[in-house]
Amino acid sequence: MFLKKLNLINFKNYPEAELSFSPKVNCFTGNNGMGKTNLLDAIYYLSFCKSYFNQIDSQNIRYDQGFFMVQGVYERNGETEELHCGVKRNQKKQFKRNKKEYDRLSEHIGLYPLVMISPSDNELIVGGSEYRRKFIDGIISQYDKIYLEKLIAYNHVLAQRNALLKHFGTTRTFDSVTLELWDDQLILHGDGILKKRLEFLQEFTPLFNKNFAFITDSTETVDLDYIPSIKDKDYRTALMTVLPKDRVMEYTTVGIHRDDMEFKLNGNSLKKFASQGQQKSYLLALKLAQFEFIKKVKNTSPLLLLDDVYDKLDEPRFRKLISLVSSNDFGQVFITDTHSERIHELFMEANVDVKMFHVENGVVEEIAHA
Predict the structure, then answer these.
(1) How far apart are CA 52 and CA 42, in angstroms?
(2) Which candidate in 130, 150, 211, 354 could, as Cys together with 25 as Cys, close a disulfide (CB 3.0–4.6 Å)?
(3) What is the CA radius of gyration of the chain?
(4) Domains in the chain and their CATH numbers?
(5) Do residues 201 and 263 make contact, with C-beta atoms less than 8 angstroms apart?
(6) Which pLDDT value is given to residue 324?
């Protein structure tokens, strides 16, 4: 599977763009702030029906315009497939595959697997627990439709339970029967989600360890520790125990939506004790393990999007990354860089043809290299 063509209208800083890609490596070069990352985000949109960076669709419409459109033409097993995403201000998002609109966007997730590596991934280390849960959920949802459905259902039930707790606080009333109905649903979906997350980490962690060892050439040990918010109790008992607190706070304080992961290096907290270089290597290993895991379960190479990775790695590790993604183990790659000659030479050293594009103020032009 690879992306052959990308068309944009009014997407972020692009009035219009029409690009044709290599099935192997494509590089967007230019100064910072010109729109290189926006092209990667448009490709991400086609896989996940949303932006990697800004979840509010209307904010991805070019300034002072009424809509944006992103279209992609893919080739999969010799067959051509077309995707269309259209967003108009104050209207429902429209997403079509081969001219047929989806009833539910969740039906699309996982059909065009993709892994993004971006400087914003640092939030996995320094950000709140929601970033780490999103990382796990994003991987599992690409190959397990039941999990995605459970996650959507859980979040709906959670919103209803929180609204009920808010109502209790506002009206100074309490209805245990109605609350228990939402508790039953929360437990039903939450138990299945927790079980799947733990199963996933058992399979994922060895891949992560392998990739970290490859990137660093070191014997340092890395761990991913899952930290449930419910400890030493079953789900129902935990909900009953914290009910007084929930009523005061007016939201649900325990459950799989409050779980976290702790990243460790040599048994210590990555956030507190690791150097910047160690943290960068850790994040890169996480994402490469994500790629390897999805490729294994989906039996196809995800698209790989590398945003501004040169400035985040030292020279040896960057060269090692380029050598790795140039191998036959990887499929189509999109990469951004500020220096066209540098990136072109590195891929030439790896004996891989790369299609180069120059980006300036929302205008993209293909670069011809001798």
Answers:
(1) 9
(2) 354
(3) 22
(4) 1-113+300-370 (3.40.50.300), 126-299 (1.20.1050.90)
(5) no
(6) 85
Rounded to 5 degrees, φ, ψ at 84 are -140, 125
Q: Are 35 and 359 in contact (CB under 8 A)?
A: yes
- What value, to the nearest 5°, has the Cα angle with vertex 149 and ends 148 and 151? 65
Return the HEC string of 115-150: EEECHHHHHHHHCCHHHHHHHHHHHHCCCCHHHHHH
Indicate the angle between helix axes 129-140 and 145-171, nearest 10 degrees.
Answer: 140
Q: Structure pTM?
A: 0.92
DSSP 144-174: -HHHHHHHHHHHHHHHHHHHHHHHHHHHT--
Output b/e per residue, 218-231; b: 16+ Cβ within 10 A: eeeebbbebebebe
- The side-by-side arrangement of strands in the sheet containing 67-76 is 14-20, 2-11, 67-76, 79-88, 94-97, 100-101
Residue type, 284: L
């180069």: which residue's tokens?
Answer: 356
Spell out a b/e string for 159-170, using b for 16 or more CB atoms within 10 Å of the CB, else e.
eebbebbeebee
Q: What are phi and psi of 304, to 5 degrees?
A: -115, 120
Instruction: Give the distance between the most distant pair of CA atoms in the chain.
Output: 76
- On whether the CB atoms of residues 10 and 69 are closer than 8 A, the answer is yes
Q: Dihedral sign, CA of 206, 212, 214, 216? A: negative
303-306: strand order across its sheet: 114-117, 303-306, 333-337, 25-29, 354-360, 363-367
Retrieve residue 369's tokens: 């290299």
Helix (H, G, I), strand (E, B) or coil at 268: strand
Helices (H), 16-144: 36-48, 123-126, 129-140
Taking the C-alpha atoms of residue 169 and residue 164, their distance in angstroms, rounded to an integer, is 9
Q: What are 138-175's pLDDT values in tens digits?
A: 999 999 999 999 999 999 999 999 999 999 999 999 99
Please give the Cα distance from 318 to 352 (Å, whole number).
Answer: 16
* 64-108 pLDDT tens trace: 899 999 999 999 988 999 999 999 998 999 999 999 999 999 999
